[in-house]
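Hi R.,

Here are the chain sequences for the assembly we discussed:
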Amino acid sequence: MKSLPKGMVTEEHFEIRECVQPVELQTGEVLLKALYISVDPYMRGRMSTSKSYIAPFEAGKPMEGGAIAEVLESNVQGLEKGDVVLGNLPWREVQVAKGEGLNKLEKGVAPLSYYLGILGMPGLTAYTGLTCIGKPKSGETVVISGAAGAVGSVVGQIAKIMGCKVVGIAGGESKVHYLKEELGFDEVINYKEYKSLAELSEAVVGSCPNGVDVYFDNVGGEISDAVLLNINRYARIILCGQIALYNSTEVPVGPRPQIALVKNSALMQGFIVRDFAGYFPEAVKALAQWVKDGKLTYHETVIKGFNRLPEAFIGLFKGENTGKLLVEI
Amino acid sequence: MKSLPKGMVTEEHFEIRECVQPVELQTGEVLLKALYISVDPYMRGRMSTSKSYIAPFEAGKPMEGGAIAEVLESNVQGLEKGDVVLGNLPWREVQVAKGEGLNKLEKGVAPLSYYLGILGMPGLTAYTGLTCIGKPKSGETVVISGAAGAVGSVVGQIAKIMGCKVVGIAGGESKVHYLKEELGFDEVINYKEYKSLAELSEAVVGSCPNGVDVYFDNVGGEISDAVLLNINRYARIILCGQIALYNSTEVPVGPRPQIALVKNSALMQGFIVRDFAGYFPEAVKALAQWVKDGKLTYHETVIKGFNRLPEAFIGLFKGENTGKLLVEI
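And here is the predicted structure of the full complex:
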């Protein structure tokens, strides 16, 4: 990352640099070659100096995030040449890394890239946020914004498995088609078709005649305003992300949600996936089983080439991806 | 209530009417004479036709709410002349009422009016909201807006009993003095001294050097914006009321709180006291004991005269009362 963006992140905030890394491995170090690097909306929050749950990125230093890499050389017990690991790594093609924090992946269980998606952070986020905060009951109506994204597409399918009526909100005809025809969502609202909050709210009413019991919010902004107008008593609103607001330079302003929460004894809760680390074993087991049984359909958008990482990351905020977006190195 | 107010409620929305009530009691009816009538902020929500948890008041019909009344005549088993009851009653000096929903009060336990306050709805609201949603831990910082009101003043004292640092927000020097000197709050912010959100936020920082863990919000609006800028990770925000917004004619707009909730994995939950009815026996027992032991100080503002009910009610929204506001008939 060349510089901290103010407002919308663009290509000019990045540069590709050639670096010389030490060749001699110390004890406890491995030499890694990146195979897949994940781009995720939460990373935009680290490109800022404001107070957050995670330290900011520094201008002039590499971006960092979930990655799958192959071990080229190892000075770490339990890891050897040819092993594949999952870790939180700087965006580098080849690098020396410490062994701590790397998880060796079992080959052959699922495509390796799945560990950056359905069996990794986005899948765990979907599972824990929906079940630990949303606590959906069979027959309830679950609405998901950013429904075609890496997290939203999994949330909707889990909610279907749990017997809920599932309504997605997404932008564009191809996403609507994907969610309805491939993932089995009951209803999908294409927010781009509506010109005002009132119109969008009418669309929510039309898709949710019994109101909204659970709202899994990846987006924020006006889409959420429309959903909030239609929540039921004891509704649960899961704040997973606010991608519509991440590139704002001013404090985002909108209708105060507090009145709807008081009137409906409703709950709104933010979280990050680590808050529910205790549920990860249960979540991975369930997700892997559903994938195996064909109950969970998983879609990746794969962009090839290390130098296209900035382009891929920026694409997240333009709503370009369907399913999990990642870069194959 | 003569007409539904749009915007601030005023005397012209009320009128005192003389009515003739049937004299002959049917089986299951009592003749009641009101002793104390409660005025509460939530009633403003019923003076509106918007969707809520409770049916709206009708123009031309009496207001209704918590009241303590003496039985003048009874056709109800278990109630006799001279008994005192608590019920949800129309604002009338004398009336025929059904026996269902009336609770006979034991005389001599506490002043009768306490059942409209510390041992009634406001006390139960304070206890259940703070403990069931806020779940404060010893050593945490609890901030309360509307701190000198019927609910806020009890919340702060319970939080002190639970070992928390308690910071109240209230308007005016006499309230600050009352909360600090009489109720033992650690810090009190007089919001009227601050001219901007930034200044008020600085005051919150000054009073809460370790940040805000629990925020019991009776008020909403800009006061809450200032508190939200200073919440800690895993903060709990209890939405009890939004009195600053109840008289708005437009949709209240402000900084979106969702980003602070996501960044801090924080929770914001609305409630009404009935949501926690299962905790009432425990709550009444604890509150009565604390009052008896002198750990809970209770303050009432009593206005005398049935015809001053409108004036008393309107006073709630002007921030005129300290402690519980009620009308003695």
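Chain A has a mean pLDDT of 92. Residues 121-134 of chain A form the longest helix (14 residues).

Let me know if anything looks off.

Best,
T.
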